[in-house]
Prior knowledge:
Pnp Oxidase, Chain A; about 30% strand; seven-stranded antiparallel beta sheet; mainly beta; 4 helices
Amino acid sequence: MYYETEKNDHGLPYNPIKACVVPRPIGWITSVNADGLVNAAPYSFFNILSYSPPYVLFSGGGHTEDRKDKDTVANVRSTGEFVYNMATWDQREQMNNTGLIVDRTLSELAETGLETLPSTLVAPPRIKGAPVHLECKLHEIVNLPGHDAMSTHSAVFGVVVGVHIADDAITGDGIFDVARYKPLSRLGYKDYAWTDESVIFQMEKRAPEEDFGKPKQAAE
Length: 220
Ligand SMILES: Cc1cc2nc3c(=O)[nH]c(=O)nc-3n(C[C@H](O)[C@H](O)[C@H](O)COP(=O)(O)O)c2cc1C
């Protein structure tokens, strides 16, 4: 099949686009508003973009026709800080519930019974139980025009200034055993996936000369 996004003429019962780029890591973002109220929400338009220093990106759609920003985006606009918390299988229900609360005067953390840990370099706290926390400072917010207010997105770029990794997930060889905590990712529709050891495999990096089709030199 083929369709054009301007026409949205896919002819399917549901728009398939979110199932076309999978799995998407879930950025479970904590932020605070100007009064210090803590906010948490999941964002699957999320990824890491570089590593030295690391930059991350999440993208928030319109809230309602009259309320432009989602709370997380509004908070980052006003305070310039946020924390990425890795969402895992064990905390899947709480993660999902933090995405359902839209009352700006409520803290999703208190409402869902999540505990927090203080951050080191930024004001938003970390979600206890998440095996990775990335403390981030705002780099830039880019407006992504949509077909309407709800589909207009704000792409929030942050630079990571502090990294926490659960000690019990670091192996004796100094490797972060990411499968231990079963990180969640988002597929299309209502589908999610987790990563565990059963789906992980290794491939050797190819030598640069092979990439250009040159035969590898025989070892001397
Ligand atoms: C797994 C998951 C992923 C989500 N990803 C996004 C996303 O990438 N962008 C977005 O605007 N909303 C996303 N949502 C919806 C928001 O989490 C939801 O609108 C939430 O209420 C926003 O909270 P906030 O206003 O406190 O930021 C997602 C929800 C779930 C459950």
